[in-house]
Amino acid sequence: MNQINDTPFSYLVKVGHISANPVSVRLEANAQERAGLARLWNILSVDSLKAELQIAKWKKDGVRIKGSVQARIAQACVVTLEPVPAEIDEAIDQIFVPENSRLARRISEESSELLLDPDGEDMPEPFVGDTIDAGVVVAEAVALAIDPYPRKEGIVFGDHIEDDGKNDKKPNPFAVLKDWKKDE
């Protein structure tokens, strides 16, 4: 994570000021930040956004941000375009290491391949400089939990008729050749 970003919701954490004992941080977005997030996520509104985080040192020079985020948002229904309210409650557990740290990469010695375990823990996220933006971590957690196809309760695609393909005719690739001999 870079300390210079264009996010509407930001809470910068100086890595050098973090101790091994977790520090509790409570974040809440104000009206301007919520409006900016709604534009960023292309939704109707962000009615509330709160996070309870524990920030602590991880190993020698890493940082762990753990906690939960709650948000109330409104999206447009994909069928009727009416507002659809949604409640989001997500857990956060993210580890950050300096970009040059060997803990940021899990590379096999013999093949130089990156090893990823889809069921394992996430790889540590590298950061540049001495600052991590915890606000971006919170905003990303909410963004990933947003339903990409919100639908108002009880609404279905009733008038939509699926094409059954009965009237489809495949074009004859030789049809253009039928009049070929007539021109000579």
Characterize the structure shown:
The protein is mainly beta and 184 residues long. It contains 2 helices and 7 strands, in the order ββαβββββα. The model has no long low-confidence stretch (mean pLDDT 83). The protein has a 5-stranded mixed beta sheet with strand order 2-3-4-5-6, with helices on one face. Strand 3 and strand 4 form a beta hairpin. The longest helix is centred in the last third of the chain and has 12 residues. The protein is 12% helix and 33% strand.
What's the topology here?
Elements: E1 12-14, E2 23-28, H1 31-41, E3 45-58, E4 62-76, E5 83-98, E6 125-127, E7 131-133, H2 134-145
Parallel strand pairs: 5-6
Antiparallel strand pairs: 1-7, 2-3, 3-4, 4-5
Key attributes of the depicted protein:
184 residues, mainly beta, 5-stranded mixed sheet, two-stranded antiparallel ribbon
Helix content: 10-25%
Low-confidence segments, given as residue ranges, are none
Average pLDDT for all residues = 83
**Structural class computed from helices and strand pairing:** mainly beta
Q: How many β strands by DSSP?
A: 7
Q: Characterize the main sheet.
A: 5 strands, mixed
Ends apart, CA distance between termini: 71 Å
- Strand ordering within the main sheet: 2-3-4-5-6
Principal-axis shape equals elongated
Residue share in β-strands: 25-35%
Helix tally equals 2
SSE order, one letter for each helix or strand = EEHEEEEEH
Radius of gyration: 26 Å
